[in-house]
Amino acid sequence: MPQKFGEIPRLSDEELLALLRQTSLSGFPNPDRKGCPSADVLETLALHPGQISVTDPVITHVTHCSPCFGEVQSFPSRHKKVG
Predict the structure, then answer these.
(1) Which domain holds residue 54?
(2) What is the pLDDT of residues 42-55, one digit of tens each?
(3) Structural domain tally of the chain?
């Protein structure tokens, strides 16, 4: 169905997830890495997410810190290459 003027385009689930991922990777710079959790915590979050409660402050940090989000996103692919 054609889009009407002023109507917001509807995104597919995949498009929305890609947009959210890209925003998280670039929209929250933290060049000084202030408040970032350790690499071990980020790895645990990436590889064993059930071990960290959704109420844990690390979840909020990672969703608002592009460098940490990028690290969490990269762990599964790095793990597969090594393992």
Answers:
(1) 35-83
(2) 999 999 988 989 89
(3) 1
